[in-house]
Amino acid sequence: MSPPAPASNVVIMIRRMLLTVLAGAASLLVPWTVYLAHTLPDRYDTGQWRAAWVGFDVALLLCFAAGAWLGMRRRRAAVPLLSATAAMLCCDAWFDVMLGWTSSERWTSVALAVFVEIPVAVVLAFAARRLLGDALPKRSVNLNDITMREDPRYHLVTRALPAAEEDVARRTGLARAEVDECLKTLQDNGFVRRDRKGNWLSIPQDLREPKPDDYDGADRERVTAFLDAKYANEVALLSWAAEHRDEFGPWATAQRTSARLTEAEFRELDAEYRELITRYCHRRRRPVQGEKELSVRFYAFPPPETVPV
User: Fold this and answer.
1) Are 209 and 229 within 8 A, CB to CB?
2) For residue 162, is the peptide bond before it cis, meaning its omega torsion is within 30 degrees of 0?
3) How far apart are alpha carbons 129 and 120 in whole angstroms?
4) In whole angstroms, what is the distance from residue 185 CA to residue 170 CA?
5) Pairing assessment for the beta strands 206-208 and 200-202 based on DSSP bridges
6) Which of 10, 78, 168, 253 has the fewest C-beta atoms under 10 angstroms from its C-beta?
7) H or E, element range at 97
8) Where does the HTH iclR-type domain lie (predicted)?
9) pLDDT tens for each residue of 228-248
């Protein structure tokens, strides 16, 4: 008996079968479409006309409602649902125009298709893409950020959010004047904002590493020292996590692998990871019962044996 195929081989086989089916379906539809074009009558009387259109609109309504519910929660299932809703709107526009072309309302159907149904379908398609890649504010760490990271008060304040100034002062033990100063500085640098009720909220950002070569003199040394301390803290954090790995219960996971990629594929991997973590950062602004703060890391680099000395 031959050994079972590895999971990766099964995935590759399924992918090839799916692509073959799609290519075959596209090929078969060409002669089928030509056949229909020559055999279908221009006119055809049918029953259940009302049920067909009412049923279609009910399905469209349900797609809109489910898409809105899933989209507000930034669930991955919203992406195919919004795409399907966009496709249904295009179908609705097509059949409204074509089936009503000989009626007195044909220009109404054309106007609805051009100004309502097609534009909404385009918006839904972009909304589906935005759910996958709604980018965080992106910039490089600057000297102001380094100053704030060197001051523990800013870390205390951001961990106390969302909250009003009085609650932040109570939770951190800082004076109200210190809290106001920290929040003002954080706001000026794009890390926090006020909501409509006056509470302060954290704003996730995509902060890239600063390049020491972009600075001169003492500033360059400061940036270099910041990066050295940052990676020392990362090593210490991962060492601590390894030592306590049996204490996290269901709240920890790890995965490692090796892949051979081109530079373009590596950039694609990096972009997809950023899109994924961005979606989860945007999912919820306020804490809910049962949630925990998690440290999430993504590292990818050539192994030591492949790097020339």
Assistant:
1) no
2) yes
3) 14
4) 19
5) unpaired
6) 253
7) helix 78-99
8) 167-195
9) 999 999 999 999 999 999 999
